[in-house]
Amino acid sequence: TLEGKPLIRHAVENTLEHLQNVRIVLGREAEKVKAALEDLTLEYVENPHFASGMSSSIIAGIRALEHSQFDAALIVLGDQPRVPHEVFRTLLEAYHGSNAQIIVPFFQGVRGHPALFAREVWPELLALEGDSGGKSVIEKNPARVQKVHFNFPVPDDVDTLEDLMRLEN
Fold it and tell me: Which residues contact 59 (CB under 8 A, 6 or more apart)?
């Protein structure tokens, strides 16, 4: 927990302030995640292959969108509870104001998350393997990527108890 709420709830509530249709990809501890988010309006996507790496979660999420009306997917990490609102707003504005197929934030020159992928690149996301994220898709063709620059550090992610303790201070 962070500030009395489950860590995932911070990330999801933050996302819901900017997007109405949010899907949560569930893997390990799926029931705990659902319990932490039970009163929020969300759709859940089961990822039975979560142990095979991050790519399986991306694939599960994109497959859940394939037959939707959506023309893009914003991939948000559940372990980043404090992505500034400006990041969401600016990424969405950049997508709607350009022809870029991928919109990626850079924080003081460092690539970060969340990243937005237009439907045209979803087949490449569906081809990911192992513990890779969208990095290879982003780097494949720089001409289709719009970088959005922010003059603050990469938002903290929480991978360890020490990371969580640092955020609480």
Answer: 125, 126, 128
